[in-house]
Amino acid sequence: MRALWITMFAVSSGSLLWMLVRRRLRLEWLARFGTHLVLSALAIYALNFSGLAAGLHVPLNPTTIGTVAVLGLPGIGLILALQHAVLI
Questions:
Q1: Tell me, what's the pLDDT at 25?
Q2: Mutual orientation of helices 2-22 and 73-87 as an angle, nearest 10°?
Q3: Taking the domains of the chain in order of start, what are their residue ranges?
Q4: What sign results for the dihedral spanned by CA atoms 83, 52, 69, 40?
Q5: Percent of the chain at pLDDT above 90?
Q6: Measuring CA to CA, how many Å separate 63 from each of 1, 11, 24, 28, 34?
Q7: Higher model confidence: residue 49 or residue 20?
Q8: Angle at Cα 15 formed by Cα 60 and Cα 4, nearest 5°?
Q9: Residue 23 has pLDDT above 80, yes or no
Q10: Is the dihedral of CA 21, 15, 40, 87 positive or negative?
Q11: Where are the membrane-spanning stretches (predicted)?
Q12: What angle do CA 62, 68, 69 make, to 5 degrees?
């Protein structure tokens, strides 16, 4: 189980680096990023109350929302992997 969480952490971290290297900033990036923030908050909210991550709770704060907005759904995996690593 620990190997699964470490793998999820590595894949999420790699996704973050890939997104940062690949993206080019344009004028419409602000509107797109704002939309991603709202959708990220909704995804975290849905995850917390659906019970899919039993025993883990992703806090709804600017850091977690920003992480999920940049990474997408792998960002939630990153946050859950970090929480699980701290709890072990």
A1: 57
A2: 140
A3: 2-87
A4: negative
A5: 6
A6: 26, 19, 22, 22, 14
A7: 49
A8: 80
A9: no
A10: negative
A11: 6-25, 37-58, 64-82
A12: 80
Residue 73 has pLDDT above 60, yes or no: yes
> Would you say 84 and 5 are in contact if contact means Cβ atoms under 8 Å apart?
yes
Statement: the pTM of the whole predicted model exceeds 0.85: no
Handedness of CA 1, 50, 87, 83 (dihedral sign): positive
Inter-residue contact 87 to 2 (CB < 8 Å): no
Token pair, residue 61, equals 């704060």
Long-range (24+ apart) CB contacts under 8 A made by 42-48 are 43/68, 43/73, 43/76, 44/68, 44/76, 47/76
